[in-house]
Amino acid sequence: MWASFGFEFVNFYLIPGLVLGCIYALGAIGITLTFGILRFANFAHGEVMMTGAYLTWTISTLAGLWLGWSLHPLIAAVPAIFAAIGILILIDRYFYKPFRNAPTIMVVMASFGMMLVVRSTVQFIWGPNQLTFVKGIDKPNEAVRQFTADLDLMILVPNKHFWIMAGTVIIMLCFTYLLERTRIGKAMRAVSDSPDLARVTGIDVEAVVRATWVVGGFCAVAAGVFLAMDIQFLETTMGFRMLLPMFAAAILGGIGRPFGAVFGGLIIGLAEELSAYPWIGDAPLISPGYKTGVAFTIMIIMLIVRPSGLFKGRTF
Amino acid sequence: MDQLLGLFLYFLSLLTVGGIFALLALGLNVQWGFAGLFNVGIAGFAAVGAYTYALLTTDTSPFHLGGLGLPLVVGVVAAMLLSGVIAGIIGVICIRLRADYLAIATIGIAEIIKLFLKNQTELTNGPRGINKIPRTWEHFTEERFYTSAPMSWISDATGWQAFFDALPRWWWQPMFAMTILLIIVGVYILLERARLSPWGRMMTAIRENEDASQAAGKDVTRRRIEAFVLGAVIMGMAGAFFAQHLRLIDPTNTFDPAKMTFLVWVMLIAGGSGNNRGAILGAFLIWTIWSGSELVINSSIEIIANYQDMFDVGVLRTRAGYLRMLLIGILLQFILQRYPSGILPESRPAAIGKQ
């Protein structure tokens, strides 16, 4: 059973699906928070992920050149996260804030413009070619392989996948603490539920907006670095390719519902990978070229059947 | 003399491509300017138009399906129809939701169209694209056209060959540019009539106050779908002419969703959304700036190359295109914040009887 079916299914479809789902989940948190709190679909979110990954690459390369250190991408990501949050807050100050009292579609348009501004800045600075993020092939973790092989359930997980999944779980735990226990987290939930009511009760909406960018930027850079660790290279369209699945995850989970977004991200990631599994016959059920189409189809079905998402999010 | 001719031909190509973008901007004006529908899948609709046209009108080819060699007009009409049908399907699903969702859905559909064109290799020749697309006027010089009716009634093959050899090589260029300009005029007149008609007034009412229009008994959803489809039909036509102009189309570079969609948006916002003349003006203006900036940036790179040898300017040369994109992006932000109504602001039709 395991040798004929389970081995291939778990190692080549389920685990990559979970990993992809983690990346989507982290990205979708930022999308759903901006959608819920600032009330607009942020098209520039994928580009923040991409920029974060490029900054991480630059920091670890410079550390290697000047100091001779070989930093793990997750350590190099820490300064990159601060830089990306700074960029996000500046973008908000100069490009989104002027539209805060205008019809929301204006700020959607501004974010669509920022998507291109950010991307072309990155393309101008780092050039159009792919960059190698991590060299070499990441071998499956030997201890896990040995242990599971003894149980006749051989599981091959490269270390990078462990980092990604563990990192996502840790970020999720911190995020849960922030939302459930801290003052600013409660304020964020309150604004997301009802901005007018929140303002009346004396919540500092601008502080909540800043917190949104901090949390969204943190998760976006983490997602970007995880994605770069997974595919091991950088390209300037990687953020844009993530954008549609992340929107799908946010809509699936319900707009303004961060935990819904995480759940949605995992579903979308799994659905994309599992759609290529040969469920019927020997050929992939859906050609791998159409993976993005799976996310889009789920999103459209959700929009028809239940626009408020699985967890009763907002509809506008 | 040669330089003057070169300048003239450059001007014609500005007119041609600017005109195609003006059609796209007019289409977007129906969706955004009239009805307030946020479409960021323009490149997708243009791609549908271009591929429909290409597959129907090119000569048979082993690389892709179709190649039916149908008359050019049939190709253009089919391009408009298919683009409209796709817009209708999206419209029925997404138009009731808020504008953000429509934006996400349209960017998604553009992506799906690209995936389809890229992956259905047996139908569209995949990433390698379609070649030798017939262009209005120039197509008369192709053998399959002058050897068949109605051209063969006038003269035989050798007669036509001699005739075309006698013409300068660029003879079709002014004709093609004029054709596009005439089509713009036609679309403009039709859209102005639509704008001033009860339908157009209803559109404005729905855009400005949906609840009030609904209360007044207007079918909001239906009107919006109509505007969305009408805009997409014009975009499909523009796509067909874009395919004619390029003669070689491929799914990724030709219809780069970011670049094409974005340029059309900048054109409409700069020219003045809601104003058909503004859309046309914005398209020609931004296209002139866009292609003029290429010359300016390239010559400044050459100047930098002449005065310093600190670093390799080759890097700058390969990245000049991104700098242009960056500058046009900042231009959009500037216009959005400072001049949101554009160069030619929307003018409301006067109340009946007051004209």
Q: Return the structural class of chain B.
A: mainly alpha
Our count of domains of chain A comes out at: 1
Rounded to an integer in angstroms, the radius of gyration calculated over CA atoms of chain A is 20 Å
Which H/E pattern describes the elements of chain B?
HHHHHHHHHHHHHHH
How much is the radius of gyration of chain B in Å? 22 Å
**How many strands, what sense, and barrel or not for the largest sheet of chain A?**
2 strands, antiparallel
Question: CATH first level of chain A: which class?
Answer: Mainly Alpha
As a percent range, the share of helical residues of chain A equals over 70%
- Under the CATH scheme, the architecture of chain A is Orthogonal Bundle
The end-to-end span of chain A amounts to 48 Å
Helix content of chain B: over 70%
Q: What is the name of the CATH topology of chain A? A: ABC transporter involved in vitamin B12 uptake, BtuC
Mean pLDDT of chain A: 87
The interface involving the most residues is between: A-B, 44 and 39 residues
Order of helices and strands of chain A: HHHHEHHHHHEHHH
In a nutshell, what does this entry contain?
Chain A has helices spanning 2-38, 45-67, 73-96, 104-126, 142-150, 159-181, 183-193, 195-200, 205-231, 238-253, 258-274, 291-305; strands spanning 131-132, 233-234.
Describe this structure in words.
The complex is a heterodimer of chains A (about 325) and B (about 350). Chain A has about 325 residues and is mainly alpha-helical. Chain A has a single domain (about 1-305), classed as ABC transporter involved in vitamin B12 uptake, BtuC (Orthogonal Bundle). Helices cover about 75% and strands about 0% of the residues of chain A. Chain A has a two-stranded antiparallel sheet. In chain A, helix 6 packs across helix 7 and helix 6 (about 160-180) packs antiparallel against helix 9 (about 205-230). The mean pLDDT of chain A is about 85. Chain B is mainly alpha-helical and about 350 residues long. Chain B has a domain at about 15-255. In chain B, about 70% of the residues lie in helices and about 0% in strands. Chain B has helices at about 1-35, 40-55, 70-95, 100-120, 120-125, 145, 150-155, 155-165, 170-195, 200-210, 210-215, 220-245, 255-270, 275-305, 315-340.
